[in-house]
Amino acid sequence: MIKKSAYVISGMVLGLSIGIGSIGFAQTTQEQEVSADTYQMLNLFGNVFERVRSEYVEPVEDQELIETALNGMLTALDPHSSYLTEDDFTSMQVQTRGEFGGLGIEVTMENGLVKVVSPIDDTPAARAGIEANDLIAEIDGEQVMGLSLSDAVDKMRGKVGSKIKLTIIREGTSEPLKVEITRDIIKIKSVRHEVKNDNIGYVRITTFNQQTFSGLKKALKDIQKETGDDLMGYVLDLRNNPGGLLDQAISVSDAFLDKGEIVSTRGRSADDIRRDNATPGDLTNGLPIVVLINGGSASASEIVAGALQDHKRGIVLGTQSFGKGSVQTVITLPGHGAMRLTTARYYTPSGTSIQATGITPDIKVERVAVVGHADVSGRMSEADLRGSLKNDNGDASEKTEEDEKEDTVDVKAGEEDIVDYQLTRAVDLLQGIYLYKSAVK
Prior knowledge:
With about 450 residues, the protein is α+β, with helices and mostly antiparallel strands. The chain is built from ten helices and 22 strands. It has helices at about 30-55, 60-75, 85-95, 125, 150-155, 210-225, 245-255, 300-310, 400-415, 420-440; strands spanning about 5-10, 80-85, 100, 105-110, 115-120, 135-140, 140-145, 165-170, 175-180, 185, 190-195, 200-205, 235, 260-265, 275, 290-295, 315-320, 325-330, 340-345, 365, 370, 420. The strands form five sheets. Strands 1, 2, 14, 15, 18 and 19 form a six-stranded antiparallel beta sheet that branches. Strands 4, 5, 6, 7, 8 and 9 form a six-stranded antiparallel beta sheet that branches. α6 (about 210-225) runs parallel beside α7. The model is unreliable at about 10-25, about 375-380 and about 400-415 (pLDDT under 50).
């Protein structure tokens, strides 16, 4: 018996017996011809299998051949369908629970290379500087071209504490980047929060796993408790969020909406349409929301951004999102792992598919590193002028070692004072909205 599991809408994180039983066929000539063709192709598969197992230059396990064939059949459909071995399936289940081993990147395939959908916050990959849209060309010196996504993910997995070397192709760089990363246990805290400028609630969602909605409720409650009546609004940060569980995306959207459609999913059949609607109750009490997105915002995060944008509930700020508008169903195959199959497309409340296009922000703000530097041009002072009068307390023209240390610390501090420009713009926007509403009351 084949059992269907929950909808998953994220990318991948890292003897033959063909029995055809009593299958009922319609009696039309056309369908009989299709059935005959199918039998012929299955026979062809069996013949190729036997020739490979008997004549290939090296012995190959039957199980390996079958699993490779299954995976080839599925991955040829689209980048997100795949066969999961029992180990792969177990790893996927662990990942959706929020803790797993690896590098901390969500990946897919593009033109034969592994493409980073997004790095996960506070993981080895993020700390090593891996960015959304990076292409992984080599893993420990081995070319990725020719590997399946599953094989590439397997190679990136490994013992905690072991090192891995990746060759990265990044847009805008002339030479490939060599990055060494130490594998670690990835513990995902899917929701983080803090208060900005004493009156802006900041909520960052890094992925949509089983703890996301409960984490969001706690974050909103904590922010409201800390700010009280001074709370002006919220920044919902979905940048570099690769997606995850569909039900969690719906619940998160519902937290900010009182009514209306959140998302619809449409499958192969015209009748195979599912609509999910918001329930009464806005956990933010109608306060303004700015949603941050970028090229690493995919799938479930695009559902949330699209729902809030279409209902005019939030202002979407940042850059174009990833554009993954398909839904995968994980179908368990007892004793043989599972298959991840694309079964539907999803649509925002306005009926728009974002597949391969993404969410267009209301306000486009590129990522800019605003860096503070020491005021080098103003370093000359009276004490630097030749022949300047001495200070009564000592020779002002001579700097002590402590003075020089302080100068060095100041410069370093300035260089490290990197500001998140997109977040700064979001906070400014919320404060502007609050001031405007106060002025027109």
